[in-house]
Amino acid sequence: MRSVLKTAVKEHKRAYEAEKKVPDFMKAPMAITHREFGHKHLQPQFEAPLALEAEGWVRELGKDEMETFGFVAYRVSYKESDDNWAEFLGKVEQGVELGWEGVVGAEGAKRKAMLHWVDGQAVGIAEGDLEGVQRHFNSNIPSSPTVSNQLCIVATPDAVSSFLFPPTVKGTGDSQPHLLAVSASTTTPPPPSKKDSADAASHSMDMTAPSGPTAFKIPPRLLYTDVYALGVYYPTLSVADFAALAAQHPLRLYQGSSTGVRRRDWRTAREGAVGVTPRASKEVL
Question: Is the pLDDT of residue 235 over 70?
Fold first, then answer.
């Protein structure tokens, strides 16, 4: 909106000065007049803004001919009772539902979003074995074009615990229930550039890639609006890209878009500065 207002002010100034010669000493005071008339020109848009439209991926996935879309999800945490597992699934669904809030036109699409669960124990995957998950996923690539074949979602023991036993003391918001997104690719991401390594060293960041498949923690609210939209439907970001963004967070938790202030708070938390508490940021991620 600021750029639109700036354009309106410039247009009024151009039109005014095309008709009248403005003395130099009046140009500064006239700036207020140009701004006032720019506001008046845009006032109808301020009072009755144009309706927001659904994003392309939301419109396409909401069409009647589209049946389902989503991810294959693996359970590799086996100690929970049936009741606890059902409780976990319910909380995941609640988190996913939260992610659709505010998404224009989401009603038709969100009811088709699905996690296709695979019991890892039933297919011979050891508890917490991400490499086993990756092998099984690559041997059983989804045939549906709307189910991701780039990555799968995994419920590890730590991930399940983050839903069933959340922290009792409110902190900075860093400890959030999360799942794990695991890449289907067995290719190791390239090492960081010299510049990235230097930046990481200056901020005490550990840029060492974790062993095993490329993976990152993801809160369920961002499964579809971020990971599916940007990583599957519009393949703008790879799993390695998401993992690199998640690495900026103290707990390697992908948080979506962020601000410089928020990332500075995360860096402070990573560095463990004595007596420094990350400020609660007002930005909605």
Answer: yes
